[in-house]
Amino acid sequence: MTWLPNKSASIPQASGDWAATQAAYDFWSSPHVKASSIIQAHQTSTLNRIKAEAVVIAPQDTTELNFTHHPSKKGMERIWFNVYVGILIVG
After folding, report:
1. What separation, in Å, do the N-terminal and C-terminal C-alpha atoms of the chain show?
2. Is 56 helix (H, G, I), strand (E, B) or coil?
3. How far is CA 2 from CA 9, 10, 59, 84, in A?
4. Alpha-carbon dihedral of residues 36, 37, 41, 43, nearest 10 degrees?
5. What are phi and psi of 7, to 5 degrees?
6. What single DSSP character describes residue 17?
7. Most exposed: 10, 54, 71, 87, by fewest CB within 10 Å?
8. Is residue 1 part of a domain?
C-alpha cells in the first residue's frame, strides 16, 4: 500500500484492495496507536533532515508552482484538479 502517488486519495482508493483498506482502518483504530507518537516521530525525523541541510525553505501556506508551459520539466505531478503540471507545496 502506498499513498504517495495520489496524496488526496481516500484510504480505500490508496489501499487498492479490501485487505489493505481494513488493515489501514485497524491501524488507525488501534488503542496502541497514538496520534501524539506519530506526530513526535514526524517532528524528530523532520528536525534531523533540517539539520542536514544548509538551506531550508519552509512555506507557511499552500502554494502551487505551475510548470505547465515549461515542457522541459519532467516528472511533475498534475495539480489543481489535474489541470496544471507542477508542484503543490503544503505548509
Report:
1. 25
2. coil
3. 10, 12, 25, 23
4. 10
5. -65, -15
6. S
7. 54
8. no
Structural domain contains residue 16: yes
**Sheet architecture: strand order including 84-89:** 63-66, 84-89, 77-79
For 15-60, the pLDDT digits (tens) are 889 999 999 999 989 999 998 998 999 999 999 999 999 999 877 7
Are 65 and 90 contacting, i.e. CB atoms less than 8 angstroms apart? no
Taking only Cα atoms into account, the Rg of the chain, rounded to an integer number of angstroms, comes to 17
Which residues form the domain of 72? Answer: 57-91
Looking at the predicted structure, is the pLDDT value of residue 80 above 50? yes
Cell (9 digits) for 1: 500500500
Domains held by the chain: number:
2
> What's the pLDDT at 6?
63
Amino acid making up residue 81: F
